[in-house]
């Protein structure tokens, strides 16, 4: 696709990362004119999402507010290929960061792009925060329901963490020996479960309920609603996620940042503990009425977050 064929709204594009073409959607504002310049946003999605989930929600919203937004499928996810000899659903943290750097490079080739910003939701918050540490082409970052300080979730109970590690180690060994993918359901939710089945077996039913309402078989953005999405994932992924924590990089971030989260969300400490370590120019916006997943798709929560992000990036 050439610059001349791009139009307002959603445009399917690709860009290179790890030598392959990653599938992406470039959202352009109404009245888009390639002879003008616009502020652009690289989006980072939650684990284990594809571009038809959060990016398909936030892309149009940010374009409606005058920004260019790039949402994409990470290497091995959605419509993007895995590397030769590797398997799909292999979303590894360090690669996500490099994919993000390449997305910034792609935006930098577009003559109508001026400043570039980063917007991450859930795990995407950690991706954006980590990527921005050494990529100062990203001028500002915003994180919504971000999982930057994941220590509070992943390492508080060392026995559970070690069980997760043992399972991930075994999965990696199995895949190496068999040459076949080892798919697991990281949250205990597979693509066939009913809401009653998943929530009934959950230790935290309320959290499970909102998870299912988005990701479940019958959910708003589950495997039925989004054809190229699955809840199944390569089993060795925790070997990277457990040592990829944005909190560790907080005091290295120099760009202005905005953190948005629900005060009563179970994941709120992943934002508050991150913010406590920041030394940059920083803004914090909290909401008492919105949960972690509300910011994924609930209209009032999405409007609140995208309004705030637009104002922050425009300033």
Automatic annotation (TrEMBL):
> In which domain of life is the source organism classified?
Bacteria
Species assigned in the record: Thalassovita mediterranea
Protein name in the entry: Alpha/beta hydrolase
Record-linked InterPro entries: AB_hydrolase_fold, Polyketide_trans_af380
């Amino acid at each position: 696709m050439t610059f001349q064929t791009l139009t307002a709204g959603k445009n399917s594009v690709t860009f290179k990362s790890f030598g392959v073409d990653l599938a992406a959607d470039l959202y352009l504002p109404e009245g888009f004119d390639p002879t003008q310049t616009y502020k652009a946003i690289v989006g980072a999605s939650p684990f284990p999402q594809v571009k038809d989930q959060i990016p398909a929600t936030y892309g149009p919203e940010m374009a409606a507010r005058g920004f260019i937004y790039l949402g994409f499928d990470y290497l091995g996810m959605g419509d993007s290929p895995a590397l030769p000899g590797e398997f799909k659903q292999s979303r590894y943290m360090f690669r996500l960061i490099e994919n993000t750097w390449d997305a910034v490079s792609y935006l930098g080739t577009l003559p109508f792009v001026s400043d570039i910003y980063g917007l991450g939701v859930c795990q995407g918050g950690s991706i954006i925060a980590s990527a921005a540490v050494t990529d100062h082409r990203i001028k500002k970052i915003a994180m919504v329901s971000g999982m930057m300080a994941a220590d509070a979730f992943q390492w508080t109970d060392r026995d559970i963490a070690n069980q997760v590690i043992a399972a991930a180690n075994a999965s990696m060994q199995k895949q190496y020996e068999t040459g076949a993918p080892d798919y697991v359901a990281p949250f205990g939710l597979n693509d066939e479960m009913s809401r009653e089945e998943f929530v009934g077996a959950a230790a935290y039913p309320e959290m499970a309920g909102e998870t299912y309402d988005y990701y479940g078989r019958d959910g708003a953005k589950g495997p039925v609603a989004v054809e190229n999405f699955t809840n199944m994932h390569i089993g060795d992924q925790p070997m990277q996620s457990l040592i990829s924590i944005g909190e560790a990089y907080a005091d290295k971030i120099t760009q202005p940042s905005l953190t948005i989260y629900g005060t009563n969300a179970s994941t709120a400490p992943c934002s508050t503990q991150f913010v406590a370590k920041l030394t940059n120019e920083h803004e914090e916006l909290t909401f008492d009425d919105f949960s972690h997943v509300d910011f994924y798709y609930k209209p009032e929560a999405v409007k609140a977050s995208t309004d705030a992000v637009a104002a922050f990036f425009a300033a």
